[in-house]
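re: the backbone from monday

yeah here it is again, tokenized this time
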């Protein structure tokens, strides 16, 4: 029987033994100083730093399902200092100096999250082992080394991103094939569900209201309309990421793109010795289709990837969390990169939507006149970025003396996505082209020029 039939259909992270709390729904009518829509990392980090700066503030989080239901509780378990856009790509949007400053703050954010964990005594299997982007082909190696030279020319130090030849990659991880890798120390692994639930307990202990099973229908001039009534606030923060299409003002601002994962059973000592994942650096490769993996604290491989279809009109539904074909391809990727683990039983499979802005840039929107703010646009790299943007939002709203107020994400407005059916056709064409180009390069050792031009024109 296939793992498609036998694997648990929920995130591995949700197996953590976390004490439950009694759920409270939003009241029919309530006044607060700050209402936060969305109970994931963006909302919780905002509540954390807002309540730290203003202990007397009345703060409430309004969540449609349960805390950590979305991407925050089911992601790949990376806390990465990297944005979806490389420093050179950020420089095209904001200029060299702003891009460099943004990356330095993002690299420091991994340490800030670690500081909070220690201060609040949060247990989430945190391990800072860095990250490896391996070249699975010689063509990928050429591209990655060229990319690295561009980043260094922008001022990114060798200690932040460095090239490892194949023999040095083996000191971190034994892969079936590698032609070298880019290594960075600015990444950690953790159990994201444990972290999100730990943060929720901290902010609740400070008096922050957490109202669950209270789907928000609209946000207008300081009034949050939810399924049970209304909440009025001086400031409303929208932190809905992959579920933003449910709010009228953010339709076409972010599209929900599904990312899926599988997890193996704990690997035995013999398999672990063959894989040699000594420092537990996170892993991805230089292909066009995004893949990502970590070795968990209990020695499982948690492996994820994009490739699931985009659904017409930015629809989000629980049934989209599972896609048999995509899950089979992800499981096959484990065997391809880690053949010693090819026989490991797949115990879990799951997925969920992330929020993708049209220009791949995160943003902090603040409208003082209407008492509205929004953070998001992480494109799947949100554990660290949500912390950074939450601190940025809090500092900007309170006009604090802070270098974060110089970041270019403040009131950066990504273009709207194309209307349907152009959006549906374009995104799904990109997904198929990513897979097709990678397969061609693997077979032929060169890039298909026409497909590559079409791919780049659609980005």
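seq for it, each position gets an aa:
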């Amino acid at each position: 029987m296939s793992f498609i039939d036998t694997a648990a259909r929920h995130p591995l992270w949700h197996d953590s033994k976390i004490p439950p709390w009694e759920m409270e729904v939003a009241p029919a009518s309530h006044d607060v100083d700050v209402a936060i829509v969305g109970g994931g990392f963006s909302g919780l980090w905002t509540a954390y730093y807002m309540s730290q700066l203003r202990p007397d503030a009345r703060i409430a989080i309004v969540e449609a399902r349960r805390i950590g239901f979305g991407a925050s509780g089911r992601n790949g378990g990376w806390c990465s200092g990297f944005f979806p856009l490389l420093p050179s790509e950020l420089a095209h949007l904001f200029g060299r100096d702003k891009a460099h400053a943004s990356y330095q703050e993002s690299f420091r954010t991994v340490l800030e999250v670690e500081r909070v964990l220690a201060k609040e005594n949060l247990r989430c299997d945190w391990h800072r082992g860095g990250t490896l982007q391996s070249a699975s082909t010689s063509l990928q190696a050429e591209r990655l080394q060229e990319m690295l030279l561009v980043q260094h020319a922008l001022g990114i130090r060798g200690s932040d991103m460095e090239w490892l030849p194949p023999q040095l990659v083996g000191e971190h991880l034994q892969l079936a094939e590698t032609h070298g890798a880019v290594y960075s120390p600015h990444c950690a692994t953790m159990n994201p569900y444990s972290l999100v639930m730990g943060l929720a307990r901290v902010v609740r202990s400070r008096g922050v209201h957490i109202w669950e099973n209270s789907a928000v229908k609209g946000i207008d001039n300081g009034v949050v309309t939810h399924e049970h009534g209304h909440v009025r606030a001086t400031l409303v923060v929208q932190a809905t990421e992959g579920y933003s299409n449910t709010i009228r003002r953010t339709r076409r601002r972010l599209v929900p793109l599904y990312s899926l994962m599988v997890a193996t059973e704990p690997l035995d000592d013999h398999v672990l010795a063959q894989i040699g994942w000594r420092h537990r650096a996170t892993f991805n490769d230089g292909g066009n289709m995004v893949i990502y993996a970590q070795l968990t604290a209990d020695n499982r491989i948690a492996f994820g990837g994009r490739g699931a279809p985009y659904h017409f009109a930015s629809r989000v539904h629980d049934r989209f969390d599972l896609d048999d074909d995509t899950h089979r391809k992800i499981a096959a990727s484990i065997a391809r990169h880690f053949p010693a683990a090819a026989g490991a039983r797949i115990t879990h499979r799951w997925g969920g939507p992330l929020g993708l802005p049209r220009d791949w840039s995160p943003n902090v929107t603040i409208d003082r006149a209407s008492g509205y703010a929004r953070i998001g646009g992480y494109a799947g790299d949100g554990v660290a970025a949500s912390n950074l943007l939450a601190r940025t939002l809090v500092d900007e709203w309170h006009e604090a003396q802070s270098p974060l107020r110089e970041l270019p994400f403040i009131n950066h407005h990504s273009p709207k996505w194309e209307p349907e059916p152009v959006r549906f056709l374009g995104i799904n064409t990109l997904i198929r082209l990513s897979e097709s180009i990678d397969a061609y390069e693997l077979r032929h050792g060169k890039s298909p020029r026409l497909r590559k031009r079409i791919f780049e024109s659609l980005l």
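The chain has two domains: 3-417, 418-459. The first helix runs from residue 3 to 6.
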